[in-house]
Design brief:
With 66 residues, the chain is an all-alpha fold. It has one domain. Helix content is 76%, strand content 0%. The chain is built from 3 helices and no strands.
Length: 66
């Protein structure tokens, strides 16, 4: 869980930089607020999926039932 949160923080910083660059270039102004919000939600969703997929080992747990 620790690595997932560190990865997600790094991803959020990266996406913040991307959106600041797009805003500085005026691309976000041309898109409008609706598509900007859709883009942000999409980027967050992808970041969460990647963070969860790379969050650590996947171990099988065996439970003995006697």
């Amino acid at each position: 869980m620790k690595w997932m949160s560190i990865y997600l923080i790094g991803y959020l910083l990266f996406m913040g930089a991307v959106f600041l660059a797009l805003s500085h270039l005026g691309i976000l102004d041309d898109m409008g607020p609706t598509w900007t919000l859709i883009s942000v939600l999409f980027a967050l969703g992808v970041g969460i999926m990647i963070a969860v997929a790379n969050s650590g080992r996947k171990d099988n747990i065996e439970i003995d039932s006697h």
